[in-house]
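Morning. Coffee machine broken again, so started the prediction first thing and wrote up yesterday's gels while waiting. Chain of 145 residues, entered below exactly as on the submission form.
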Amino acid sequence: MSFNTNTRSTTLQSTGTFTNVPVSGIDTSGTYSVTFSDRAASDFVNIQNPSTFAFSTRDVGANNVLLPDSDDVVTILSNASADVSASVTIQASTHANSPTSAGFVATQVGTVAISGTAVNTSPTATITNAVELGQPNVGTAVVNP
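Came back before lunch.
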């Protein structure tokens, strides 16, 4: 994820692989690449989730995520190179978080969640991977300009 302070816009990009995610009830493996680009900071204020940048490739009924617009790129392919983007949902987010360890003064958490579809095309359970990056509390100071 990047934030351009000149244009006050953000871009979030995620790529990866998935294994045994149901596509119409059939376990499917493949790759994904999603790029949500040049989104205005005001878009995130409007979803009223402070310090959070959250996107979803499909409308899952949540009101605190942004959906793709005309310049975003969503590619979700099975290992057989079939486009499964209508059946697989990728949600990506990043947000500031209180430190989970006393050794950090601030952390940033990033998540990527993936869900598929059952035989009746209803969504399946979501699998979420998260990573937390911390700013060590070693001779540092947080300064707000």
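The chain has a mean pLDDT of 83. Going to sketch it on the whiteboard this afternoon.
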